[in-house]
Design goal:
single chain, mainly beta, 7 strands
Length: 184
């Protein structure tokens, strides 16, 4: 069984939003968070150039993440990047090493979503991104290097909530597993 979620007419997380002009309302669709990252906040830079998303998790890590199949490479046009998707009955997981923009696009409100600062992941500044009308999905974003970040997305079908962690908890676990391998 494959998971399919209806998203209505709202943009998916990561969809760029148009710049506002001074004549537009000051009410934004996102709530910019204080930027949690700077080069001094990272323990070191972990460049994601050339990272193959499906290689960011090991076969040994998959069962603890409730993933029971190999990942499938996907192109993610919104980030101009290649990612990896793991779909299981009731949930989907995705990792995308983003190298064309930094975490500040989220914390500065240039992308759609509600950023929330979270505890660092493996010592690296991190945020979660949610959309008010999509509680079944959450992104965890790890600031790995200047102008780069790791995006981990987990979506859980509401009828399977008892089988998987909450989406933001699952996204964090996914990001932590990938970061362990990036730091080796």
């Amino acid at each position: 069984m494959t998971l399919a979620l209806a998203t209505g007419c709202s943009p998916a997380p990561g969809t760029p939003t148009p710049e506002r002009t001074s004549t537009e309302s000051s009410a934004a669709t996102t709530t910019p968070a204080e930027a949690p990252s700077s080069s001094s906040a990272r323990p070191r830079e972990v460049k994601l150039d050339g990272a193959r998303a499906c290689d960011l998790l090991t076969a040994e890590q998959l069962p603890s993440l409730k993933i029971d199949s190999a990942g499938r490479a996907v192109e993610v046009a919104a980030y101009e990047a290649s990612g990896c998707s793991w779909t299981v009955t009731g949930a989907s997981n995705r990792l995308v090493p983003v190298t064309k923009e930094g975490i500040e696009v989220w914390t500065g409100g240039k992308r759609t979503g509600r950023p929330s600062e979270i505890e660092p992941i493996m010592g690296f500044p991190a945020i979660t991104i949610t959309l008010p009308n999509q509680e079944a999905s959450c992104d965890a974003i790890v600031d790995t290097a200047e102008g780069q970040y790791l995006l981990a997305t987990v979506t859980v079908n509401p009828s399977f909530e008892d089988r998987f962690p909450k989406p933001c908890d699952g996204a964090r676990q996914l990001a932590e597993a990938a970061m362990q391998n990036l730091l080796k």
